[in-house]
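Quick one:
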Amino acid sequence: MSLKPPKHSEQKWPKKRGGRKRSLHLDYNLIVCEGSKTEPNYFLSLKDHINRKESNRIQLEIKGGLGNTIGLFECAHQIVSESVNGYSNVWLVYDKDDFPADHFNEVEERCRNCSESDGVTYHAIWSNQCIELWFLLHFMYLQADLHRNEYFPRLTERLGIHGAYAKNREDIFEILLPYLDNAIRNAMRLEEENQGKTPTESAPGTKMHIMMQEFKQYL
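Output:
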């Protein structure tokens, strides 16, 4: 017998006094990142915000430093197969950097195929070239295809009184949160510009807005 709990669509709904139903729907989400500091720090702060208000509706599990592109997908798939949590969504967060184009593009296809067969929805949340593009979109719209190192001085300039940008900063989510709607709009605008292109060809481009639109309702 499987130790995995039933999916939320299969869970029972105990009644409260007076015959009213009490929802047991707890949405388990797994976030896996290739980075070991920048992305986990960002998502751990997101998790803290959500837990203050909505811990009875959604749970986030965050794992960083798990490899890149196809290797990240394989790690995520193994975690799901061995877990008792019954994840509803798995979010793979990774950058283009200098990885081969076919590997970078293939992750989206694997996520799509695995979602159809597993009953768990896998999301390819890539950034081309790096997640710092998503950070910068909180402050401005950007069409130029910058090298990833060029984002650092631009972010430092925009952060102003908050100090220089560094990849291991633990407060970046808190600083950027007031500008989240702006980042989503700018990322959606980039997505429209990149329509019909592969992830590798979408430079600059990011799918972070898809993930954050989903979690925004819990903030």
